[in-house]
Amino acid sequence: MAWLAPGLLMLGLLLSLPLTAALVRLGHRLSALDSAGATGHAKTLRAVPNIGGLAIVAAFVLPLAAALLVVSGVLPWSAESVWKGSGAFADRLSEGQRFGWLLVGAVTWLLLAGMVDDRRALGPVPKLVLQMVPALALAWLAEVRPLVGLDGHGPWGTVVSVTLGTLWMVAMANAMNFLDNMDGLAGGVGAIAASLFMAAAIVVEQWFVAGLFGLLAGSLIGFLAFNFLPSSGARIFMGDGGSQPLGLMLAALSLRLVFSDPSDPDYALGTRGYGALAPLIVLAVPLYDLVATSAIRIRQGRSPFVGDQQHLSHRLVQRGFSRRGSVMLIWALAAVVGVGGVSLGSLAPWQATLVGVQTLLALGVLAAAEGLFKS
User: Fold this and answer.
1) Residue 196: inside a domain, yes or no?
2) Report field, pTM of the whole predicted structure over 0.70
3) Could you tell me which of 291, 288, 366, 368 has the C-alpha nearest to residue 329?
4) Which sign does the torsion angle of CA 52, 249, 165, 134 carry?
5) Domain, as residue range, for 76
6) Which whole-number Å values give the CA distances from 193 to 93, 276, 288, 336, 357, in the listed order?
7) CA 42 to CA 321: how far, in whole Å?
8) Is residue 368 part of a domain?
9) Is 351 among the domain residues?
């Protein structure tokens, strides 16, 4: 079964590559190009299509929807014939049909909302409401939330758990949206996080989650071939139609991955309860950009929701880094910090504390390097 997630990564890649190439041409034909954004948004417009999110989402959603249809018996093939040799995956997929369909719906919802925003900029309140709807649906109806054990303490326990899950997914949708400000940045950080989560899921044999992370990583890598590799600059952007679903997928799937199991002393990712904090560390870099950029705007008396050229990557460029160098530095930091996060639940308290300190120090060094303390 260890082959399944890498195999789905390749499937995501093979779907994303031609889809992205086709959208480059279609975007120019339809003039679906980089847009100015909300009133007051300061950015340099480029004649580049911003509909790449459609390729990322399609390469993820289409295989997932097809698998769900097979398992449910809608398609003419039986689950046994299609998933022969992958029984554990088929079983988990069957059990997770509610989650799977809700995830398909939630991702599609944010894709469409983001593509509308890319064409006719939405205000911050409508945009936030549109993010809350799918996040709340996943947290409430599919139990995509932390601290599910609180449900046993009455309605308020469920409310707390649902609220935390919803806020986590909305925060990540916005974090990846904020991070999507330079060629290859959001796609690369997303691919790194998805790959780390996929590896963790493989280790503990959570094949369903591992496969979905593999699909996501592959779809992002295929997109990056057109968004980062061209030396002349990106040929396509993911737009809000890609960055918001990307954040939601990373957040939702990370909540489905069990990072610690106190009931199993042999659990590969550990038995410590603080292992549940692993997603915060793996995704620390986009969260840092969200918090730091918002703080800068508020300090300047501006709305944190109105875009500008003061993101982490921009500030690194202002400090002397090239644009590609800035992106690759952030990629490297995301990988280094993320590796420590994955193993959090298997560490003794003092070791976990060191990982937390290491993460804070790494972000502190980054803050100093980009001049955050001097702004």
Assistant:
1) yes
2) yes
3) 366
4) positive
5) 4-271
6) 22, 16, 15, 11, 20
7) 21
8) no
9) no
